[in-house]
Specification:
It is a multi-pass membrane protein. This protein has two domains: 158 residues, no CATH class; 230 residues, no CATH class. It contains 18 helices and two strands.
Length: 429
């Protein structure tokens, strides 16, 4: 079974089908044909339709936490709403993940396309709900408390606020993918931000162009490659080549969809880079140049899927006083679904990021000459790419058999070498 073909490409078709409606929204908003309130209704209605079309009856799994979070925001005090939102949303998401694990491993049922899209959209919804809850906690967003009776509260302006919150949680350009923007940024784009059709069209055209190139590269690389069979039957150095090629296919697919998601985002008028109050605001996931040229695992980690990395930093890393790095990666494994590959891959990733900080700090004084710096950069770049390939294959292919094959092949030498370098640098220090 081609995992990439099953999960990613049908999602791209749904995203492509949403482009005309995104362009229509951007056009109507740009020329003032769509007032502010109908804009929120348009975005929310589009999200509901896209959910029903792509997920079928499983769309209710998305609607329940979206509506429940609105109730939570209005009945829980702002001092603790972020912890309540995180706990309840992760309980709901974990229950869905456990249900899928039960169907996949115990009942031996194949996970359908609609279920895959649903769980992916639910993970993105978790990001938006917890981000909005943290904004409420930090008083960046104000909530009208329930006071003086439900009827008076509803007609006192809360109905409009509920519409805006639901529109943010379910707006269709970012329902199935796309950069994570805060509620303040979303509200700014819909109500205040000036529209620039040329910039939007330029970003969309550029995104489509590079996405097409990446898809062609993926088609060339994927010829005659069977993931499971190759990784299970390879020998010696051939395993390294197969691991790197497999990871490259995953990366190309991610790059393709990030570009497509950002293009849909821009088509609706949500620029991924704009100026407000003299400052440039940027939110995007795609920085292929940095990802493919960096020689530091820590830089790759911060750059890979920037939206999720920033969200994890804000939700977990900055809140934990002890073991923040390990707690962040452990939570990431939980958020991704707790498959064996997720647990193994993210815990290894945490250890290797920790090692990366110390190793580069230790070896920096050794780079005196130009030749030494070049050799150091080449060696660490190659080593970083192979370690990243090891992590991506373990996380994305998820099964215990694949993890076992990776650990018994030459592929395991690269993370082990990094850990030995860390131990050596600590002892010498």
């Amino acid at each position: 079974m081609d995992y990439l073909q099953l999960v990613f490409h049908p999602v791209a078709l749904y995203q492509l089908a949403a482009f005309p409606w995104a362009f229509l929204y951007g056009y109507l908003s740009s020329f003032g044909h769509l007032p502010i309130t109908p804009r929120f209704i348009y975005l929310l209605f589009g999200g509901i339709v896209l959910s029903c079309v792509s997920m079928g009856p499983y769309a209710v799994v998305i609607f329940i936490p979206a509506l429940g979070s609105i109730v939570l925001f209005h009945i829980i005090s702002w001092q603790s709403v972020h912890w309540w939102a995180l706990a309840l949303q992760m309980v709901w998401q974990t229950a869905c993940h456990l249900w899928l694990l039960y169907k996949e491993y115990y009942l031996q049922e194949e996970i359908t396309l609609r279920l895959s899209i649903m769980i992916s959209a639910l993970m993105l919804l978790t990001q938006k709900i917890t981000t909005l809850a943290l904004d409420i906690h930090e008083r960046k967003v104000r909530i009208i408390p329930v006071d003086g009776g439900m009827k008076n509260w509803f007609f006192s302006g809360s109905a409009h606020n509920i519409l805006i919150f639901l529109s943010y949680l379910l707006f269709f350009p970012a329902l199935l993918g796309g950069p994570l923007c805060s509620f303040v940024e979303f509200h700014h784009h819909v109500t205040v931000a000036p529209r620039c059709n040329y910039l939007c069209f330029k970003q969309v055209a550029k995104g489509f162009f590079f996405a097409l190139i990446l898809q062609m590269l993926r088609s060339l690389v994927s010829v005659n490659l069977s993931f499971q069979l190759s990784l299970m039957t390879c020998r010696h150095l051939n395993c390294v080549c197969i691991m790197w090629t497999t990871a490259l296919l995953f990366k190309l697919t991610y790059y393709f969809h990030w570009l497509l998601d950002e293009s849909l985002f821009c088509a609706a008028g949500f620029l991924t880079a704009y100026h407000v109050d003299g400052f440039q605001v940027t939110f995007c996931d795609t920085d292929i140049w940095t990802l493919e040229t960096t020689h530091k695992i820590s830089v790759f980690t911060r750059t890979w899927n920037k939206s999720t990395a920033s969200w994890l930093r804000r939700i977990i890393f900055e809140k934990c006083k002890i073991g923040s790095l390990l707690m962040t990666f452990a939570f990431s494994a939980w958020w991704h679904g707790l498959h064996p590959g997720h647990i193994f891959g993210f815990l290894c990733w945490a250890l290797l990021v920790k090692a990366d900080y110390r190793i580069h700090k230790y070896f920096n004084p050794c780079q005196q000459s130009w030749c030494t710096r070049v050799l150091y950069r080449i060696f660490t770049w190659l080593h970083t790419q192979l370690i990243v390939a090891f992590l991506i294959v373990a996380i994305e292919m998820r099964s215990i058999k694949i993890i076992w094959s990776l650990c018994l092949s030459y592929n395991c030498y690269f993370p082990i070498l990094y850990c030995l370098s860390l131990i050596s640098s600590i002892k010498r220090k």
